[in-house]
Amino acid sequence: MSAAAALSALPGRKSILAPPSKAADTAFYALTFAMAITVLALVLIVGVELFRGAQASIHSFGWRFFVGANWDPVNNDFGALPFIAGTAVSSILGTAIALPLSLATAIFLTELAPAWARQPVSTLVEMLASIPSVILGLWGIYVMVPWLHDALFPLLKRYFGFLPIFQGPIGGGYCMLSAAMIIAIMIVPIITSIAREVFRAVPDSQRDAAYALGATHWEATRLAVLNASTRGIFGAAMLGLARALGETMAVTMVIGNRPGFSASLFAPGSTLASTIANEFVEAVSDLHLSALFELGLALLLVTIVINLLARLLLGALGRKTRLGL
Question: In CATH terms, is domain 88-285 a member of 1.10.3720.10?
Answer without folding.
Answer: yes
